[in-house]
Amino acid sequence: MTLSSTTPRPLIAGNWKMNGLSAALDEARAVAAGLDRQPAAARVAVFPPATLLHRLAQAVEGSFVLVGGQDCHHKASGANTGDISAEMVADAGGKLVICGHSERRTDHGETSPQVAGKAEAALAAGLEPIICVGETLDLRQSGQAVAFVVNQVRESLPLSLAGQAFNVAYEPLWAIGTGHTASIDNIVEMHAAIRAELISLFGEQGRGVPILYGGSVKPENAREILAAPDVGGALVGGASLKAKDFLAIVEAA
């Protein structure tokens, strides 16, 4: 997906993680219906588990809802049992894909160079990647958070992203699914550091790349977070599972 000449709209991305059976498609339909009634200023995307990807794409076809995959392999095909390629995500109706989510890095040991490979695979399949970075509580408390995340950006973003549409998501690991949210000052500091690195890597394009915040984003805090400098959207977890909550976050953008 080639980058538009205009500044990208904010992106509100709902990551369902390992949640959702067939009945959950009704929540996606409700999101689509809500956006049809009241179009949003932001782009809206839902990332269901792979078992629902094709059906959800069909359920919201023709609506304002984009659909994406939660992960992809860096290879287009092969003997990789249980993995899904970027081409498979696209074939199922996905338009975007998450690369290097903190839970993939932590639970599956994914490294930043591996994440960069996934981002390249996403581009090759015509998908728009969301590349995730973020620090642990130990790194935050030791004062190394900014340096660590900037290095993740440098190692996780291949230069082949130049001229292509992509997003970066900052996820403080200690604020994911815990109910804790980074302070606005924390968010502003980190997003500014990520922005500076994006400009260093991609020049003028780096000024417009959306930087999403992910970490216990809820209807109650979304407006304040999304109004902060250099916050170009949100990567929403639990609050994206219910259409009412997710639409409230979309409305705040």
How would you describe the overall organization of this protein?
The protein is an alpha/beta fold and 253 residues long. The chain has a single domain (11-252), classed as Aldolase class I (TIM Barrel, Alpha-Beta Barrel). It contains ten helices and eight strands. It has an eight-stranded parallel beta sheet. Helix 2 links the parallel strand 2 (43-47) and strand 3 (65-69). Helix 7 runs parallel beside helix 8. 49% of the residues are buried. Residues 1-5 have low confidence and may be disordered.
Helices and strands, with pairings:
Blueprint: E1 11-15, H1 25-37, E2 43-47, H2 53-59, E3 65-69, H3 86-91, E4 96-99, H4 102-108, H5 112-124, E5 128-133, H6 137-141, H7 145-156, E6 167-170, H8 184-202, E7 211-213, H9 222-226, E8 233-236, H10 243-252
Parallel strand pairs: 1-2, 1-8, 2-3, 3-4, 4-5, 5-6, 6-7
In short:
With 253 residues, this protein is α/β, with parallel strands linked by helices.
- Write the CATH fold name: TIM Barrel
Radius of gyration, in angstroms, nearest whole number: 17 Å
What is the arithmetic mean of pLDDT?
95
Main sheet specs = 8 strands, parallel
CATH superfamily: Aldolase class I
